[in-house]
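Hypothesis: this fold can be encoded by more than one sequence.
Test: take the structure tokens below, design a sequence, compare later.
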């Protein structure tokens, strides 16, 4: 009985303490929500609501001048026979398949080169990052001059080694590779920064142990660096792939989708259909097909991540 009486005051003392802890947690959650509220409002207004609206509009024949008529899946059926959409899809896939591996490999290579404790290395890193933080339109205009067939710097450099450069932006064969080169040059600096962050978090004692075991530089990269970089590599692959599917500015400024349909991408097709021809319903259907493709690609990448990425 005495023990029971001794425990009851302790229990009574714990209850106010637990109540105050719950109140404090609610206050902290409320403060956190208030800080997040502006971002949540922006997400709802500029992302979530437009995405839902675009999905609804994709079932309408919505002409900005003539109004909207519900047509069900007709916009999606039309995509199956649309030669422009087919060309834009193939061009976008070509761009992704070529530019993503190049941007990742070059970014990793430059990160390995600049991951050195040498004087002035920060300057080199800033130089490599500079194209990424520069406006795409400004870079595209500059590269458009560089690609000029007669006086452009690219063809002049090729002429120094005995190569006759093509008409880059007016050739159906070379126009898309020209956009790929520009895009890789612009984006690899960001990948370099991400890889650098991963490289600098790898414990040095692992390299020291590998050197003591007689591992060559390639073996150290293969068995130490690359496995420990797998989480960063996965992140870089995902964001680079998503960004490549949305290529638009370069093609608009440099080629306007030409010559012919050689550089017309899905996002450019959306722009042409929606904001030049004013068929917003059909443009929304194209946008949702693009979303579905990116979503499926991302799911596949996450499936591979379970098998290939190590967080240990």
């Amino acid at each position: 009985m005495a023990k029971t009486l001794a425990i009851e005051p302790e229990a009574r003392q714990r209850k106010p303490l637990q109540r105050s802890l719950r109140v404090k947690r609610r206050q902290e959650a409320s403060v956190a929500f208030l800080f997040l509220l502006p971002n949540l409002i922006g997400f709802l207004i500029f992302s979530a609501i437009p995405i839902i609206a675009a999905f609804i509009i994709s079932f309408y024949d919505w002409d900005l001048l003539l109004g909207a008529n519900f047509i069900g899946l007709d916009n999606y059926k039309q995509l199956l026979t649309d030669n422009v959409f087919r060309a834009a899809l193939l061009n976008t896939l070509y761009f992704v398949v070529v530019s993503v591996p190049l941007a990742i490999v070059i970014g990793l290579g430059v990160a390995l080169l600049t991951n050195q404790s040498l004087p002035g290395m920060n300057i080199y890193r800033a130089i490599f990052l500079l194209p990424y933080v520069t406006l795409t339109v400004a870079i595209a205009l500059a590269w458009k001059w560089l690609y000029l067939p007669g006086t452009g710097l690219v063809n002049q450099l090729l002429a120094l080694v005995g190569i006759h450069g093509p008409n880059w932006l007016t050739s159906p064969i070379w126009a898309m590779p020209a956009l790929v080169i520009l895009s890789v040059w612009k984006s690899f600096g960001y990948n370099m920064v991400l890889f650098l962050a991963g490289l600098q978090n790898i414990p040095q004692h692992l390299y020291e142990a590998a050197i003591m075991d007689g591992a060559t530089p390639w073996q150290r990269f293969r068995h130490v660096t690359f496995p420990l970089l797998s989480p960063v590599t996965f992140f870089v692959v995902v964001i680079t792939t998503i960004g490549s599917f949305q290529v638009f500015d370069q093609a608009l400024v440099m080629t306007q989708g030409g010559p012919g349909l050689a550089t017309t991408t899905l996002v450019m097709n959306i722009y042409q259909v929606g904001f030049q021809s004013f068929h917003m319903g059909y443009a929304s259907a194209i946008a949702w097909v693009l979303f579905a493709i990116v979503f499926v690609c991302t799911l596949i990448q996450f499936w591979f991540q379970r098998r290939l990425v190590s967080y240990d």
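The chain has a mean pLDDT of 89. Residues 78-308 form a domain with the MetI-like fold fold (CATH 1.10.3720.10).
Hypothesis status: open.
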